[in-house]
Every structure is written in C-alpha cells, then in structure tokens.
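Hey, can you fold this one?
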Amino acid sequence: MSKLFPAQHPYELFARLLAEAQAYPRDQIPEPTAFALATADDRGQPSVRMLLLKDVDDAGFVFYTNLESRKGAELAKNPRVAMNFHWAPMERAVRVEGSVVPVSAADADAYFASRARGSQIGAWASRQSSPMERPSELDDRVAEFERKFAGRDVPRPPHWSGFRLEPRVIEFWRGKPNRLHERQQFIRERAGWRMRLLYP
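Sure. Predicted structure:
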C-alpha cells in the first residue's frame, strides 16, 4: 500500500513539511507560513482569506487578528473553521478542520510585543473590514497613533488577539502524475489520532 508519510504524529509531519517549505528560496515560496482560513457567518455564508501562522504545537495552530474584523465577528459566533496550506513548488498541501479557542492574554501580549512597531501601530489604526470614507483616512489614523505612542512602547489593543485552531482532522496531500494524488488523513479520537488513506 502506498503511503504519503510514515505513520507518526500529524504535528510531527506538519513540522517537517513546514521546515522544508521554509528552506525553499523565497522567490519560490515567499511566505511559508501562509494559509487560507475559511469561516462562516451565522447564516452559513462562508468566507476565506489568507493569514500567517504564528505558532504550532501539540495544542493546535495559532494566528492573530483584529477581533472586530469580519473573521473576528464570525469566529465569535461560529468557532468551526478550516485552514489550508499549499506549497506549490513542493507539491504538498495540508488541510486542517476543527474549532478555535482564544489564546491567553499573556500569549497575545507576548506576540504583540514581538511585532515591528509599524505593525503595532497598524493594529491600532486599522478598523479592519470597516468601510473607509476616503483613501487618506488610514494614513491619518496611523499618524494619530504614532503621535499617541511617541516615545513609549505600543500596548496591545483590546480588540486585537489570537486564536488557536484545535484540529479534529488533519489531512496531508502530495501531488502525483495523472492526478493520482496521495492523501493521508488523521482524525482525532479519544485515544489519539487515527490515520486512514483517501482516494484522490
């Protein structure tokens, strides 16, 4: 039986693939941690956008966002999500399904403090997903918060934090000729992870 990877913990497999993607030249894989995140509103209307993975461990996959954005509002009402990583030059992809939980305030503070100052200011200035009345409005708000925090550290905004996606399913995909792709799916159960192979 053809197997995509040796049978081991799915987080170990993901870490191995991510490290391989990060070793690629940036002109081939410019953002190795980029993934598509799908959410749905309370009517079931899905939406998807690209984000960057900020941490992964045995508890799940961590990302950060403006809690007042569209995705923040949708996650507050419906925590069930899906993410997809695709590293085209490697012919590899990883799909994850599960539910999100908020990260701790301490974790959010620590990550926010590690960001570039410009990104910290941007988190205060951007009313993410809200309409702008004029193109210069964002620049004006950036200037406003640069003045407000001049000469001191930028604190984390109360409307900005992170989520950890706790997986229920993790699927690893490898491209092969004639679209006879290999798919290995891990399903979380009480005793651990159950692995099965899927047809392409």
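The radius of gyration is 19 Å. Let me know if you want another pass with a different chain boundary.
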